[in-house]
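Sequence in, structure out.
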Amino acid sequence: MYQRKLEKDIRCPLEYGMELFGGKWNSRIICVLAALGTLRYSELRHEMGNITDAAWASTWKGFIAGSIVERGAYDEIRPRLK
């Protein structure tokens, strides 16, 4: 069985970047957020086009868990995401 030669903490920055942004939809979500700024969940979902609900939820949960995006609550009827 394959065993890593390096510990998980010691790795190439490129490998770390690919882990964060290597998914099919990850780079697209980051680009949309960078271009359009703070969006509501449904607005961001609409910008993604033909992404499935399962892929969207999985990608979004990964972003929140990795602290790449911040989910904020505003005193509004329809909440927005940063």
